[in-house]
Every structure is written in C-alpha cells, then in structure tokens.
Amino acid sequence: MELSIIYDKLRFEEKELHQKAINKGISTHLIDAKPISFSTDINQNNSIKGDIFLQRCISHFRGLYITSCLEYLNHKVINKYNVNEICGNKLRTSLILAKSKIPSPKTYFTFSAESFKELTNKLGFPLVLKPLVGSWGRGVFPIRNEETVNIIMEMREENDSALSRIYYVQEMIKRPPRDIRCIVAGDQIITAIYRYSAVGEWRTNVARGGHTGLAPITHELEEVVIKAATAVGGGILGVDVMEDENQGLVIHEINSNVEFRGASQVSKVDIANSMIEYVLSIFKK
User: Which of 116, 200, 237, 274 is least surrounded by CB atoms within 10 angstroms?
Assistant: First the structure.
C-alpha cells in the first residue's frame, strides 16, 4: 500500500500520522497541497501518487476541491468529498442531523441582516451565532442582547463574503463549562475527551486556551456519536457533544479534519496509530 497525506500546514497531527504509517511499514508520502495541479485530462494527471489519500488541509475549500479532483481520478480519499462538504458547512450538518433524528441544538437560518434581527427579537436571548464555515471557535458569538445583534449586523454588512449574508443561529445550551470531543474512525470511537473552557472564555476550543481531560465512553455517548458519524457519511471524524441539563447529550458539530494534539495528551489510546489502522481497513476493502 502507498499512502499519501495531503496537507497545507504541517502540524503535529500530520507528522504523527506519517510516523505511525512508516512504523507499520507503509510507503508514505507527505504532500504539500499548495503546488498541486490537476487537469480534466485523466491521462495527464500522473504527478500525484498513492493508493489511498488522507486529506488533511486546514483550508476547507482547498481540501474539499482537491478531494473532488482525486475522486475524479478514481482515488480513495479519507474523508470523501460528500463527508467534507457536509461537515465543513454547519447548515448542512444541522439539516442532516435533524433529518436523521439525532439530538442537536435548535437551529435557525436566515438570509439577510433584517431577517436576522427579526429572528432574534422573536426568539429572545441568549442565542449563539456561528459562521457557516470555520473552526477553532472563530466567529462564534454569544448573543445576549440587542446591542450585540446590531454590532454583528454591522460587522457582517461590511464583509464582502457571500457567506456573511447567511445567519446561522442556535439556542444556547445549558451545559457545564465543557463539551465532549469524540474522535471516530468508522463505527468506533477511538477516544473521548472533555474540553474545558479557559478562565473568562465561553468557548471550549483548545485553540482558545481550553484544556482537556479523559471522558468515559458510555453506551449513551457511543450510540448517539456513531449514529451522527454514520449520518454524515462516516470516515475519520471529530464529533462534538454537549451535555444539556434537560435534553441530555446533543451533537453540536462534526469535524471532517479533526485535530488531536490536545486529545493525545490525555488519551490512553494511540490516536494516530488507530487512524492508520482504519486507513488500512479501508484499503483492504
């Protein structure tokens, strides 16, 4: 087997995956995504080699369309284009979760500043605003009053991005100052960790100063997480769960390019090695 790991920034995760694959005797290449080019002429696309590809680009759109090109050339890619497209867009993820009857926060979508303001007035506070595309908690705001609504509207209207005209609003879940990140490969949870908010920070992202602790993989957690992972198409995923006071476990996000440096510090499982084992199982199918 020949494995290619495609990246646009070489992080801890890509280095770990590379080393674990080499340790298993797998011929493995680290490929920088930025110089890659493709053509619609299949016969001219011989510069990129591999029996199976791990797509690990930080840039959502770069990774998404490289995956599309690789699949056009009949390569196996983890994760598949459809999985990346769904997980990389929070609106699409929410619709899939709701259709699959998987518990998740009540979510609302609106498509102009005026309708956003009307929606928040109707729902009341507090609420949470998230960007459709993004990670590390960037652009996620708690909305606690009308003043915040007005500030967000002004910021969005000054942004030329078409996605800034789409407002993705969720109920604010009553939870402990933590969430649960489950790293999934296929139909198994590799590990589960608590992500605790940093002092003075509402978000739980490790990139925002949060810290981690090992979380138990209960039957309830396993059931809802695997159901959510299956609903979006499966693969290697980061499924984020909140513990609601009234609803119990709710899925609030699924990541198709999951980071695991923080999880590796507390997990009793070798995460990168488990991911490579999953890649081998896909290759053999």
Answer: 200
